[in-house]
Each structure stands twice: as C-alpha cells, then as structure tokens.
C-alpha cells in the first residue's frame, strides 16, 4: 500500500506585504504561530508582538516598483531563501473618477497591481528553487464593480487577471492561489467619508479568519493547489 503524501505543517519562510496592519498583520501572525518565518514588508516598520526573533522588516513603498524589487531581492538573499509570497498590501481612493486626484488614482494601481507584480517578480528565482507558493490578495470588488471605486476595482480586477495568467505560466513550478476576500474588520475603512464606509450593521470578517485560509493554501501537499478562494461574510453585498 502506498503511503499518503506528506505535506508541511509549517509554511516555511514567507514574505508578506502590507504586514504592518490589517490582513497582512494577521497573516504574519498566523505564519509565526504555525512555526513559519515571516519576512514583513510595509511602508512602515512592522512590529509584531508574537514572541521569538523576527527578521528585520522590509521598509519600502510599493508605489515605486523598481525600488520594491531591489528591497525584496536583498531581503530574500539575506534570509537564505523563500518558500512563499503573500501580497496583502492594498490601498483605495474612493470617489467618482473626475473627483479623485489623478495622483491618488494612479497610486492605487501602483500599489495594488504594479507593486504585487514587482514583489513576485523579484521573488521568482527563490520560489523556483523551493517549488514555492504565491498567494495574491484580490477582492470581491475584483469580480463585481461598484460606482466611486474605479481605481480599486481596476486594480483588483487586474490582480485577478494577473494571477490567473501567472498560475498558467508557472504551472508545475510554483503554486499560485488567488484569495478573494470580502469586507473585513480592519482600519482599511478608517478616515473615509461616511458614504464610503460599511453600514453600521454590516457583517465584516475577522482578518484572522482570512489569514487561516492563506495558511491552508500554503500548506497543501505537493502537487495540490487551491487556485482561487473566496472568503466573505454570509451577507456580503458584493458577492456574488
């Protein structure tokens, strides 16, 4: 009788973008608790209170893709390798297209889409060496468009298209999962005008629940991949 395939209980060394807060922070915490090694990246230094020694945070702006690539390449080299990348960084600029300053609109695309591609591009050599995994974070607004969200929808529709093409390109070499979360209880909505905030009775997901889905995707047996995952509240208004 053949023995069942084994798979890692630890996700290994994982680079997480947007790790200073929200979903990214929840993922970094989950990685650490599962025995993994988080390499954190954000515009601000990441301070995780999870115990144990952590690698120095990667501090860079994903709106500058070439700089981000250089920072990631150096961090991976110093870490001695990489098992996975999770691209959780994301920003928004709400409002009608003609009312959102062009620089703000462009920055959403730069961080959410171009920054995602830049980080993955820089990590590819290390991921090929370990037959590693990539988890891109999209959104239910990457599947359904809403008004006053042109920048965010464009970036997240782009992440889904990019991820599907990348999964085809890297098939058999590096695993690619697209995670599509709905609304979460994070600071993402802070500072917005009231019309762009969730309703007071809105059901939002704990980011720790979404982080669990990321951990699940990262620890599947070799040859098994979760291509796309939707994680959302049962009353999510933007799904389906």
Description:
The chain has helices at 22-33, 65-79, 102-130, 150-169, 207-218; strands at 13-17, 37-42, 58-59, 84-87, 133-137, 175-181, 228-231. Strands 3-2-1-4-5-6-7 form a 7-stranded parallel beta sheet, with helices on both faces. It contains 5 helices and 7 strands. The chain has one domain (13-231): Rossmann fold (3-Layer(aba) Sandwich). It is an alpha/beta fold and 240 residues long. Helix 2 runs parallel beside helix 3 (102-130) and helix 3 (102-130) runs parallel beside helix 4.
Quick tags:
240 residues; Rossmann fold; 37% helix; globular; disordered N terminus
Which SSEs are present, and which pair or pack?
Blueprint lengths: L12 E5 L4 H12 L3 E6 L15 E2 L5 H15 L4 E4 L14 H29 L2 E5 L12 H20 L5 E7 L25 H12 L9 E4 L9
Parallel strand pairs: 1-2, 1-4, 2-3, 4-5, 5-6, 6-7
Helix pairs in contact: 1-5, 2-3, 3-4
Distance between the termini: 44 Å
Alpha-carbon Rg, integer: 17 Å
In terms of DSSP E residues, the strand content is 5-15%
DSSP strand tally:
7
Classified in CATH, the superfamily is NAD(P)-binding Rossmann-like Domain
Helix amount, in percent? 25-40%
CATH topology: Rossmann fold
Query: What general outline do the C-alpha atoms trace?
Result: globular
Lateral arrangement of strands in the main beta sheet: 3-2-1-4-5-6-7
**What is the residue-mean pLDDT, rounded to a whole number?**
89
- Please identify the structural class as seen in this structure: alpha/beta
Q: Identify the CATH architecture.
A: 3-Layer(aba) Sandwich
Question: What about the largest sheet?
Answer: 7 strands, parallel
By CATH reckoning, the class would read Alpha Beta
Helix and strand pattern:
EHEEHEHEHEHE
């Amino acid at each position: 009788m053949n023995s069942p395939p084994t798979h890692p209980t630890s996700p290994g060394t994982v680079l997480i973008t947007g790790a200073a807060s929200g979903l990214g922070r929840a993922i970094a915490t989950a990685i650490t608790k599962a025995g993994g090694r988080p390499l954190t990246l954000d515009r601000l230094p990441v301070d995780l209170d999870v115990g144990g020694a952590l690698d120095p945070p990667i501090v860079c702006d994903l709106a500058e893709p070439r700089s981000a690539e250089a920072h990631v390449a150096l961090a991976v080299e110093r870490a001695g390798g990489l098992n996975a990348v999770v691209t959780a960084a994301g920003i928004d600029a709400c409002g009608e297209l003609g009312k959102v300053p062009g620089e703000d609109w462009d920055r959403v695309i730069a961080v959410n889409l171009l920054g995602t591609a830049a980080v993955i591009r820089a990590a590819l050599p290390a991921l090929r060496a370990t037959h590693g995994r990539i988890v891109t974070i999209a959104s239910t607004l990457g599947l359904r468009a809403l008004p006053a969200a042109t920048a965010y929808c464009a970036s997240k529709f782009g992440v889904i298209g990019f991820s599907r093409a990348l999964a085809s390109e890297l098939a058999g070499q590096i695993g690619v999962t697209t995670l599509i979360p709905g609304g979460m209880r994070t600071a993402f909505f802070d500072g917005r005008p009231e019309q762009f905030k969730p309703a007071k009775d809105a059901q939002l997901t704990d980011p720790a629940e979404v982080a669990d889905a990321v951990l699940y995707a990262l620890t599947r047996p070799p040859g098994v991949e979760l291509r796309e995952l939707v994680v959302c509240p049962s009353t999510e208004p933007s799904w389906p």
